[in-house]
Amino acid sequence: MEDPEGGAKSQFDGASAAGRKDGKKSRRRKGKRGGQSRNAAHPASHEPSGGAGQPARPMEDAAGNPARKRKRRRRGGHGAVQDGSPLPQAIEQTAAAGNAVRADSDSAPSRRNRRKHRGKRGLQGRPLTPAKPSGVSQQERRAEETAFGAELRETLNGASADRRARQESHSHSGHQGDRQAAGEYAWPEELYAALDLGTNNCRLLIAQPTRPGQFRVVDAFSRIVRLGEGLAASGRLSDEAMERAIEALRICASKLRNRQIRRMRLIATEACRQAVNGEEFLSRVVAETGLALEIIDRETEARLAVSGCSSLVGRETRSVVLFDIGGGSSEIAVIRIGDNRFSRLANHITHWTSLPVGVVTLSERHGGHDVTPEAFEGMVREVEGMLGSFDCPEIEVAQTGDFHLIGTSGTVTTLAGVHLDLPRYDRRKVDGIWLSDDEVSAMQAKLLSWDFASRAANPCIGPDRADLVLAGCAILEAIRRRWPSPRMRVADRGLREGLLTDMMADDGVWRRNRNRRGQRVRS
Fold this sequence. Notes:
4 domains, alpha/beta, 5-stranded mixed β-sheet, 523 residues, Nucleotidyltransferase, domain 5, 6-stranded mixed β-sheet, 44% helix
């Protein structure tokens, strides 16, 4: 290759090869210029300009600066050489010939050297941009991935096209295109809903499955409706009670309509089981709210309560008595866990019972406004008589930690809130807390010493529960006398959580989520 001025190409860059100390730096500079020396465009002579018999150095300006830097600035789009120096003739000829220098940089030797040093540049910290597929635009590629993701979701979930599109746009707006471009598919939310219409409360829970055995609450609703008020005396649901319940159910129906629910289960318990007009009331609920509730039996209610609290039973536990003190009934389940634990704790239930008494019915019979120690003991004895007919073998405790109680109801959560002296009830601080036997006794005695106004003023009780909390304490005391335990765990969960857990497990959503994340599924 000849110099642009016609001279022979210089072999070195103004110094001998032996004189260089940093050979690595020199090789890197050669690699950046396609394997050529730094000043390859310079003439062979390196004497000062105007020397005898030698032409002027065309690649230096009047200030003696190498023209290579100007050439790099020109390539970077800075225009003419700065400092007012005229362009050398070689660069003018190159520009007139249609950027011959740029064409020369794309020559075969230069391309080979770029490929040769590409890996080294990556090791030096320069990001390596992945090659884009040729012939397919980014929009076309995203369209293909979207179509594939939709087909795959339809196969796995069996959802309709319209519902799948609404879920996809609702739960992943703003991020779906980026995730699909990166090869990840934005799965739609799988929302489940559970509604529990009890004797005292109407509760709704909408949740999304997350890790195996767990879910994230998306929306929740709870209201005291006292559907079973006056039921023990008349055997019927009063008009006022039904109006309160339907008003709460309208709110639940509105929440359900605003969500894309994959599956829901709506249940009614003791009040509708006992009332002679229970079925009539549920038909009215369907007509006025569109919600179709099913009346479950007592055994199903006990199993759902156990399913909802399964995560609170440790691996070291061998026996548990779980109780749910409701408004019109109280469910008790005896659980014995052997060496092999089932995935569903409800499968370990050995004995269960449902007492036809709850906080509403017991307080109506004995009075809940002004409760004396004698009246409280009378409520305890009544419940003890019901437990006496429960045929259940004694629980053997081999060592400390093998056995404990679990309470899931407003009674035990209220005791925990009072024990923690919370300024207002906080589920996060109550759910899962342990109370010793002495602490439970102290809280019951404290509540019994308060009058109605003091109980109503407590933020964890309130006026709606002030006349019911001592009746719940009486049921709890009867259970503690039948199954003495050094400690009790408090669960702010119950039937709704059990409904959600069972539905998600039946649909296999946790197993499907593990497959999506590429995790190995246990046999």
